[in-house]
Amino acid sequence: MERPTQPMDDEARWDTARRLLHDDTLKPEDHLAGLLLLLYAQWPATISRLTVNHVEETDTAVRIHLGTVPVELPIPVAELALHQVAVRRSHAALARTDSPWLFPGGQPGRPISAWAMGERLRKLGIRLAEARSTALFQLATELPAAVLARTLGIDITVAVKWQRAAAGDWAAYAAEISRRKKDS
Question: Least C-beta-crowded within 10 Å: which of 56, 152, 173, 180?
Answer without folding.
Answer: 180
